[in-house]
Amino acid sequence: MAKDKQQKAPGRIKQMVQVYQNTRVHDRALTPLMIVSFVGPILAGVLVALLLHSNWIGWILWCVTGALVGLLVAMIVLGRRAEAMAYSQIEGRAGAVGAIVQSALRRSWRGSEVPVAINRQQDAVYRVVGRGGVVLISEGSLQRTRRMAQEEERKVKRAMMNVEVVHLYVGPDEGGIPLAKLSKELTKLKPKLNRNEVQAVFNRLSSLQASPVGIPKGMDPNRVRSAGKPR
Hints:
With 231 residues, the chain is an alpha+beta fold.
């Protein structure tokens, strides 16, 4: 077990370094922000040690505490900036919602990166199931996806009449949700299903799904995941 942990640790460190290197190419403010995030808590620890008239042991403890807090804050900044960069790179591209469904949704939600409906213009409708019910997420043109989403709602209602269906739209048209705020919009929905009901509804709808719809060309969810938060 100890050998396994030692082998995994360098992998995580290497991953964070890669995320940092990839992100700073597109985000010039990343390095200064991380430095400030790291140094700030250390200075705060020094200030507290001065105010408390600490002895040398107190100085060491406060400085070490500041360094640990600074490292944590710097990693949080890196994760958020990397995530924002990843969203900005795929914003507006076909299949972007599918990448978010696969890599960024919380465990309380069930869904697939494969759309349940797609047209020739690569407008797509995705379906996710969670505490907020069944959610149909339209991507592309609002006008073209409206009919597709309505048809998918009819299919859901035929299978499970008592399940509420919520519509969300991600795209450039009026009322569209920015891609980076999609996960937050889902968490805002009022709970309508418990954990067991979420799994049951998802399984029921998945069993009714016909042959899978292909992921729109030009989007590789795995590449998006690699540019996300460091794990």
